[in-house]
Design a protein that fits this description.
Elements (H helix, E strand, L loop, with lengths): L4 E6 L2 H9 L8 E4 L7 E4 L1 H4 L9 H7 L4 E3 L3 H15 L6 E5 L2 E5 L10 H16 L3 E6 L2 H8 L7 E3 L5 H5 L12 H9 L5 H5 L3 H8 L1 H11 L16 E11 L2 H21 L2 E12 L3 E13 L2 H14 L8 E13 L9 H18 L12
Parallel strand pairs: 2-4, 7-8
Antiparallel strand pairs: 1-6, 1-7, 2-3, 5-6, 9-12, 10-11, 10-12
The protein binds magnesium ion.
């Protein structure tokens, strides 16, 4: 079924809240962020952006470029209160909302066609409600999937409204640089450029087998789908105690630790991929272990710094597994790896993880070396 996904992103959110609440800041460059010597810009108002100031920039550079700006430390409590108000407004427009960050989220409008004249009118209504009730402007993108909706909301910022129809997706994407693809960071962009792919249109025309030889099967498939404007990720409302995990029940009980670790590796890879795909990081990794027939145990590790890479998840799961005493003669019926205590990881690059991947492949190769080539079925474990 054709979906209708709306992405909404507040314009220069922190700076706009400051300008709304302080008349004297309006029309002036406002820069919100860390004001100390190592501070970083969180948000710059559009007046400040004209001077080349942008978020994630060192505050020292921002001060040089725009010395007369109003510099403010972030007031997170106030921004959070405004954010809650915005999401409560959005909740009137769709029951299926996925917050992406404090000022950004997806709404699934599929099946609500009867409530709207057109997707564009619905987008207008959302923007109007937010503006009238909060005094703030938002940019909205509407498209058949998340990737295109997020791309669309960015196309006419600020106060934008862009609808990408399914039949126009490839045309819209073709001239854009590959870096606009969800998950493509600097390293992947450079690798694709080395293969001759600079625009999304060029990538869409690439030969899949050739791409897979350099990038691997999964990455090639994922990139090609996105280059064709295809993205089947659902809009997923977030709950407090959310976790992402995978478990597998075995037809025949596992009796060797090596076999079990091979499964943990595969599960960890799946879980890491899903985390990064959703832009999430995790602070806990949980191992689930069931002995035949039903005795089930879980063991958990908490990290000071959040993780999202396969290798880190695998190492944690394996360490928990190695510490677990297995009674002699008991077969393992089920293994599971899950991650919890999730939060938004900011800009996560799905395809740039090569150094980590290399080390993961090293681990896999060692297992292969010990147990033979065909024991590893990395690609064959889709849920
Ligand atoms: Mg924003």
């Amino acid at each position: 079924m054709e979906r209708i996904i709306l992405h909404i992103d507040m314009d220069a959110f922190f700076a706009s809240v400051e300008q709304r609440d302080h008349e004297e800041y309006r029309g002036k460059p406002v820069i919100v962020g860390g004001l100390g010597p190592r501070g970083v810009v969180s948000t710059a108002s559009y007046e400040a952006r004209k001077f080349g100031v942008h978020s994630a920039q060192a505050m020292a550079i921002a001060r040089r470029r725009c010395p007369n700006a109003v510099f403010l430390p972030p007031d997170h409590a106030r921004y959070s209160a405004v954010s809650r108000q915005i999401f409560s407004i959005l909740a009137r427009f769709s029951p299926v909302i996925e917050p992406l960050s404090i000022d950004e989220g997806f709404l699934d409008l599929t099946g609500m066609e009867r409530l709207m004249e057109s997707p564009r009118d619905y987008g207008k209504a959302v923007k109007r409600a937010v503006r009238e009730e909060t005094g703030l402007t938002a940019s909205v993108g509407i498209a058949p999937n998340k990737f295109l909706a997020k791309l669309a909301s960015d196309m006419e910022k600020p106060d934008g409204l862009v609808v990408i129809r399914p039949e126009d997706a490839e045309k819209v994407l073709a001239p854009l640089p590959v870096s606009r693809i969800f998950g493509v960071g600097k390293k992947t962009e450079a690798r694709l450029a080395a293969l001759g792919f600079k625009t999304i249109g060029q990538l869409a025309a690439a030969d899949r087998a050739k791409l897979a030889r350099t990038l691997g099967d999964r990455m090639a498939a994922q990139l090609l789908a996105l280059a064709h404007g295809l993205d089947d990720r659902p809009v997923e409302p977030r709950r407090e105690a959310q976790s992402i995990g995978r478990e597998e029940t075995f037809d025949e009980d596992i009796h060797s630790r090596e076999d079990a670790e091979r499964v943990l590796l595969s599960l960890s890879e799946e879980v890491g991929w899903r985390l990064r795909r959703e832009g999430l990081v995790a602070r806990t990794v949980t191992l689930k272990l069931r002995f035949a027939p039903f005795d089930t145990y879980t063991r958990q590790q908490t990290f000071p710094d959040p993780v999202s890479y396969d290798e880190d998840i695998f190492e944690a799961a394996r360490a928990l597994f190695r510490e677990f005493p297995i009674p002699p003669g008991r077969g393992i019926r089920l293994l599971g790896v899950s991650t919890g205590n999730l939060s938004m990881g900011g800009e996560v690059s799905l395809f740039d993880d090569h150094e980590k991947k290399d080390r993961l492949y090293d681990a896999i190769d060692k297992l292969k070396g010990r147990f033979g080539e065909n024991i590893l079925t990395r690609a064959g474990r889709k849920p």
